[in-house]
Input
Amino acid sequence: MRPIVHVLSAMLLSLALALPAAAATKAQAKHPPGTVIASAHALATDAGLETTRAGGNAFDAAVAVSAMLAVVEPVSSGLGGGGFFLLHDAKSGRDVFVDAREIAPRSATPQAYLDAKGDLDRDRATNGPWSAGIPGLPAALVHIAGRYGRLPLSKSLAPAIRVARNGFPVYARLEKGYGSRRAVMERYPGTRAVFLADGDPPTEGETFRQPDLANTLELLARKGSDGFYRGDVASKLLAAVKEEGGMWTAAELAGYRVREREPLRFRYRGWRVTTAPPPSSGGVALAEILQMLEGWDLAKLDATHRTHILVEAMRRAFRDRTIYLGDPDFVKVPVARLIDADYAAGLRATIHPERATPSDLLPGVPAPLEDDETTHFSIIDAQGNLVSATQTVNLTYGSGMVAPGTGVLLNNEMDDFALKPGTPNAFGVMGFEANAPKAGKRMLSSMTPSFIESDGKLAVIGAPGGSRIITEVLLGILGYDAGLSAQQVAALPRIHHQWQPDVISAEAGALDTATVSALQAMGHRVNAGESPWGNLQTVAWDREDNRLEGGTDPRNPTGKVGVLPLAPQRERSGSRPAVSATQALEP
Ligand code: DON
Output
């Protein structure tokens, strides 16, 4: 990750520009003037554009981008992982949340993750077969292509298959991630066969080929879900898990299904927000935080009080996350109450304007892992279809384990369950009964793919970052509300609070020393100067100017915004196109 200099004035500028989402006065374009895609890797953005050129819509592009990310960012996501896809289908006007989250195998009882002393066995929770849930991403690709796409799956998967077979240049984040997980990854013969194929670990600049993964993708293209969840690939996955001491059954693999869920909706200062429902905690937390914030005009607050109010709202939402959130197919999550504006008003009333509310201190809460994996992409197409997708294998290179002969690196998403009640996971967040592991249950997530829409503007936004995803997306929405461009939104300095540990995390440069001292005087603990985190990818359409723009996180040098203006015939019949892409800021 490249260090970037954050300028406090960027945040202050956002205050100066803050206006309520204005009622539109100008004419509104009916269709966007082309397609815009922001993703964390240029090859993935290009795969989406290639699919669009071949006649695909945003959903075909999403399949192409998602599969390409699975190939070129194994450090972040892949066929052995899962994800959430928030879709807007322009023709029907319908929003749908495709939940391709991994599920717990039957073997994953809470006892299975405790050591002889009854402590959480962190190795089992994050490394190797026990850390992996039954993958969801392959099912999502098949589902989205079949139900929403225009092209056959073989066409949308073609770019990913090509790059898996021919290879792509290793970049710094892949090499560094491998270094940080090497000891675990090299335990497994399947992983060694992929990552040490040329005798040594992947090194920046050399070509990384994944022929087994290309074959697995081809099977998926030819046979649909059966190409992964049954037959040869499934047998190899089952054998590998068994060989390494884990337990999955053929029925669990064959029985995996994505779920289509109703997205969560609420309003904030004139914006209509559409976002992730449980088993993500992201949408609920976002709704709580933003609706609490409606009690203040953030633009009128100084940096100290603005940060204080933001943090107090974050603290309260993360407390609720810990207690109430889990898989709605297994536990009753009081979503309606939690996202009610009156509930937010009640929480708001408990915020002291000048004093930090101490979170209950729990002993032995470790600092969250620094980990920037998982990946997000955002798409708007010329029909007005939208895709906001976040996909993951959880931590860097997931479980570290590739099933031999498949190229499939298994996730370590099981750590997102509250494997031991009240014991923090890798992101320092914990949970209780609502998020206890159970056969077939989806582990709680923070992934928050979202749309926000006012009368004149529409934006698609999301990010990786574990529990920090929620606050990244939150700050991004506040940035759009303050009138920032998509690129400025992606670059905004970040702060975060998650109730426990009771500390404000701030990127270097996000808070100046005077603000840090003032916050400390109010009773806050502040970790100023943390390394940058996150990898936000966002695209936006201004309907009044009929302009598309994109923002890719400058913390990640491989990201790319790509645009494809409409073909001339549509231009003549529609409004005048104007497409601008703001690329990642150069150092
Ligand atoms: O679903 C979740 O919330 C996590 N598994 C996401 C992991 C993540 O973002 C890793 N990157 N920092």
